[in-house]
TrEMBL record:
Domain of life: Eukaryota
Gene3D superfamilies assigned: Kelch-type beta propeller
The protein, known as: Oidioi.mRNA.OKI2018_I69.chr2.g8137.t1.cds
Length: 437
């Protein structure tokens, strides 16, 4: 405390004492963490020197005696929380808490249980960046982890990698319990109720397994539930309330039916689509699920929407191009719209937006996207295609997109070898690791 008092201006005269106090708290936390890693006096002294330097640069510190006036400390920069909905840390925390809330509520059967879930959600949300527990946002959040290097993990049958949003893509190691890479070939996948599940695939179409590890060491559990047959990753989607995942259009049942998995039980949906969607995709559209695509030119134009209340499917506006194969596309919900990305032949680089019963072609990828995967980070879309990972942003209000840029070029030997990769956000895998500890 004595060091802090000597290196900061009197709180009664410094105009930005509140920001100085936040900075002071951050410096103290770094100092304590530094000391915990020390084993000798020299290390302790180095920690103390860093602490003094940190305090000196704070608003109201000796280098910024007039608070934020002419002070370059990060706490004096324009607040990243002026528009919380545009702050990626706030959105990450908010989305994570909402997933936990939905997972908690899905297991509740009483008012008291729902109240407990809601109270936990409200308490956790208070600590999010830009909320009362962290008004300045990251990195000044005492009860929220700002350090997660978000990005995604992509897993294929013989090549898997870690892709941070900033930095270099690195190859990762996978250990299969059966020693066979076909374990995930053609599998569906979904992140349901804080758990990453893998469904079916070439090795065993009836198997459901889950991710038991994370990052460089990825282990898959043995079978946890014998489900219905499933093959093809793009016909899988989680309902908006996180209560269950749909797995649709597999050859061993029929191309109009969907199965469901709710985390413990498996069954067939009572309603079917009106048209076949062989090798089609499904994705979230607002509160509903939308199905699109077929390997038949006569049926490739049909799109259908599942009513979230009844589960019934009904036709919506046909795809704007008739007599075309629409198989192999990826579907993904973005805001109040759904995107279809890539597909077969003439559609292999096309990006379409569906909104308000209308289709709009937004633009093109630079490379082919056929039986690929896609992931959304706060409306920035990463498309894992045949030759590269591309990224672009979408404005669903105006129906426009940015130019698609190459995020990662696959090594030449892998071109057109990345088939339907399983993709999970690193922050979600970090969350699952915490649940497994």
């Amino acid at each position: 405390m004595a060091i802090s008092q000597r290196l900061t201006k009197d709180n009664n005269t410094c105009p930005d004492a509140d920001l100085g106090a936040l900075c002071d708290t951050d410096c103290r936390g770094a100092y304590i963490a530094c000391r915990q890693n020390c084993n000798d006096l020299t290390c302790d002294n180095e920690c103390a020197i860093e602490y003094v330097e940190c305090l000196s640069d704070c608003p109201c510190g000796v280098n910024c005696p007039n608070g934020c006036e002419d002070c370059e400390h990060p706490t004096c920069q324009p607040s990243p929380c002026e528009i919380p909905e545009e702050n990626k840390d706030f959105l990450r925390c908010k989305n994570s808490n909402e997933k936990m809330l939905n997972g908690c509520l899905s297991n509740c059967y009483s008012y008291d249980c729902s109240e407990i879930c809601t109270q936990e959600f409200l308490e956790n949300t208070k600590n999010c960046p830009c909320n009362p527990g962290c008004p300045q946002g990251c990195p000044f959040c005492p009860d929220y982890n700002c350090e997660i290097d978000d990005g995604f993990l992509a897993m294929t049958y013989f090549y898997s990698f870690s892709a941070p949003l900033e930095g270099n893509v690195e190859r990762t190691q996978i250990n299969y319990p059966i020693g066979n890479p076909l374990y995930i070939t053609g599998s569906g996948y979904a992140y349901l109720q804080d758990t990453f599940y893998i469904f079916g695939g070439e090795y065993d179409r009836y198997m459901i397994s889950k991710l038991d590890g994370y990052f460089y060491k990825i282990f898959f559990a043995t079978e946890i539930k014998n489900g219905e047959s499933h093959y093809y990753s793009n016909s899988v989607a989680v309902l908006s309330d996180d209560s269950k995942v749909l797995l649709c259009f597999t050859s061993d049942i029929d191309y109009k039916s969907c199965m469901y998995f709710d985390g413990s039980s498996v069954g067939l949906e009572s309603s079917k689509t009106n048209s076949d969607h062989i090798l089609g995709c499904i994705g979230n559209y607002r509160e509903a699920i939308m199905a699109f695509g077929c390997d038949s030119t006569s049926r490739g134009k049909y799109a259908e929407i599942r009513d979230p209340e009844t589960g019934d499917w009904s036709y919506t506006t046909n795809f704007p191009i008739d007599n075309i194969y629409t198989e192999g596309a990826s579907c993904i919900g973005v805001g109040d719209a759904m995107l279809t990305i890539g597909g077969y032949g003439d559609l292999s680089q096309a990006i379409y937006l569906f909104k308000n019963e209308s289709w709009n072609r937004l633009g093109n990828l630079s490379t082919y996207h056929y039986f690929g995967s896609v992931i959304n980070f706060n409306d920035e879309i990463y498309a894992l295609g045949a030759y590269a990972i591309e990224k672009f942003t979408v404005d669903t209000t105006n129906g426009t997109m940015s130019s698609s840029t190459i995020f990662y070029d696959y090594p030449p030997a892998l071109e057109y070898e990345i088939y339907s990769p399983l993709v999970i956000r690193k922050s979600d895998s970090e969350r699952q690791k915490e649940l497994l500890i």
